[in-house]
Amino acid sequence: MAKKSYRAAINDALRSEMRRNPDIIILGEDVAGGQGASGEVGGVGSVFGVLGGLYKEFGPTRVIDTPISESAIIGAAAGAALTGLRPVAEIMFVDFVGVCFDQIYNQTAKFRYMFGGKAKTPMVIRATIGAGFRAGAQHSQSMHPLFTMIPGLKVVMPSNAYDAKGLLLEALRGEDPVIYLEAKTLYDKEVEVPDEAYRIPFGEANVLREGKDVTIVAFGPMVPRALAVAQTLSKDGISIEVVDPRTTSPLDEDTILDSVEKTGRLVLVDESPPRCSLASDVAAMVAEPPRQGLRAVPVHRNNEAVRVRRPRHSLVGAADGQPGQSGQHGKY
Amino acid sequence: MQMSRDELKRAYTRLFRIRAFEERVVKEFAAGKIPGFAHVYLGQEASGVGVCHDLTDKDLIGSTHRGHGHCIAKGCDVKGMMLEIMGKAGGLCGGKGGSMHIADLSKGMLGANAIVGGAPPIAVGAALTQKYKKTGCVSIAFSGDGASNQGTVFEAMNMAVVLKVPAIFIFENNGYGEHTAASYSVGGGSIADRARSFGMPAEVVDGVDFFAVHEAMSRALDHCRPGTGPYALEIRCYRFMGHFVGDPQAYRTQDELKEARAHDPLPLFRKKVTNAKLLDGMELDAIEETVLAEVEDAAQTAIAAPLPDIKSLETDVYAHY
Lengths: 332, 321
Fold this sequence. Notes:
The complex is a heterodimer. Chain A has helices spanning about 5-20, 55-60, 70-80, 100-110, 110-115, 145-150, 160-175, 220-235, 255-265, 280-285; strands at about 5, 25-30, 65, 85-95, 125-130, 155, 180-185, 190, 205-210, 215-220, 240-245, 245-250, 265-270, 300, 310, 330. Chain A is an alpha/beta fold. Chain A folds into 2 domains: about 5-190, Thiamin diphosphate (ThDP)-binding fold, Pyr/PP domains (Rossmann fold), CATH 3.40.50; about 205-305, Rossmann fold. Chain B is α/β, with parallel strands linked by helices. Chain B contains 12 helices and 7 strands. In chain B, the strands form 2 sheets. In chain B, strands 1-2-3-7-6 form a 5-stranded parallel sheet, with helices on both faces. In chain B, strands 4-5 form a two-stranded antiparallel ribbon. The N and C termini of chain B lie far apart (about 55 Å). The chains are: A alpha/beta, B alpha/beta. At the A-B interface, helix 3, helix 4 and helix 5 of A face helix 5 and helix 6 of B.
């Protein structure tokens, strides 16, 4: 079986499914690239090159460059999905959902429920997540906890090329709106990926490595890191089980609980800020009600850098126009 | 005025159906029969009916929080609507939508939308479907003067021009966005000028006159059906009631309310068709009588109908989970 990169696997899934289903269209910023310019159209294929060659094969009616207008991108995708197409909309960086969030959680995710089950919105929103490029605070976030709490939306976080293809094909053949979060740091990582189409069901976690001492549940780009840690610590005689949930909505609770029941210890590794996160959510799920055999309180390791500190005495001096003293800090 | 007598009767039926339906909504809201909020379309009837008069079920509309009139103009069943507004099981959305989320996809009604400025991007997507599938049909976004200030609406207008989709932007300027006058909130004063600046033809239309709206809409449809790009109408009309049913309206003087009610689209329609001897008063009265009975039946049925089963709270969230 040939090895393919995460990027190539996503491209592969889109290309094969677009050949099979004429209702699939792609829309977003620079999904082709070069429209209206003096040179070649279609040479960009999305900011990280994931859509390379698709414009050439499917043309401007199916690979649609839009203005930089995220609300109109997601809204148009929702309207097209509601009326019989199956759009794949791209939000270049997940950090940009702030300007179109209404269209995601009030529109796309709500139609089916609000209209009593008579509407469907089969669409996929692709977005890139994660730090690792030193790209600053507005191009490095992982917003999956925000999406996971939205009823009506499914949330997919592939951690390797094989899953990337199978999960995307599942999304493209389902009837629900899906947000598909691509880890920027994984685009060049290769694993064996079959050429033919295959689907990975949502809500089925993958136990990537079996162990008996401690369970690590890691999300998206943190999965390869968890595996590396497990490999390193195995030399010290610590046997680590690594669980990749693959989708956070639906979440495979049983596989996580079964693993923790076996190992008695849980470490959660996630890139999003700690409060109200997948890590805190899974930690709570595991700890409550108390589980037989749990030998330690679950630990979750989020990105501590974003545990923002606030000054305790910020109002001191404010009355006379002096800036607040911030010498003493406390974690909240 | 080139409509047949049957067409004129259909138009008056819809105008009066909205009037009677909304007056009944006001009454039942006061009686505690309607949960949540209700925003009625009284005074704006000629806009919705004029816009939708020549549409088929394959032409699509997206509506607003003030959407009952658009539903009726698009042909939605009033009994299904009243059941929905009262949150009853037999409603058009099974009682899950309520006043602000009535939808009937079989009639090309893509849903009322309670987020001001929420519908135009969706209507652009529906127009994209029309273009992609080469249907020759259009997609219409109803918005108000309030929504004309939302960034989503600007994005949608620009996207419609860029993608050359058959979208028609209807801005019903009823003078108020919630409790703030459009004369205060719409910078520059003209919504039609904003639409033009995005590169689409736009007209300002007298929304009290059904025939003026219909004629402008005919031009919009002629422009859009071939799929060459969008069109916009700023329809100037009057909101007879407050923002929501029960709004005390301290922000409007009695003189202004009296002046608004003088611009009533229904008597104007009657006057025009009877003066032209196209329909007589008795024929119009007969339409009113039929519609009143229909609305009475809808209200009685809805009041007596059961609430949805509690289990339905958790259904229809996903197709499959």
